[in-house]
Amino acid sequence: MARFPTLGPGDKVRDKHLPDRLTEESLDSSYAPVSRAAKNPDEIAVGAITRSANGAATGFSVVWDDGATGVFVGTESTTTPGAIDSYTVTHVLGGVTTTYTQPALTRNASGAVTARPAMTVS
Asked: pTM of the entire structure?
């Protein structure tokens, strides 16, 4: 039976001894892409949620899967009270801020979304 070495406190494994499955690329791909969370910011909401008089979530803090923090700011629909038509959500990590913006949605008379512009990143 092969015996594997045991690491003690402070011991380090050199990169050349790590298996290929632990490359930076493979570890990065194990997280959901940031853009997916930006499209569903309610999934990364933490803490208190500010709501409009109609119940729309207009502001909250976020924590991303990669440990970044940020804030969500939503604009309530003028035609469908309680719904959010546009928003921004920030991703702040290592002093770098990325802002994801969902431009205003178009809704029909019953409030269903009929057009969703592409999200922008800045």
From this structure: 0.73
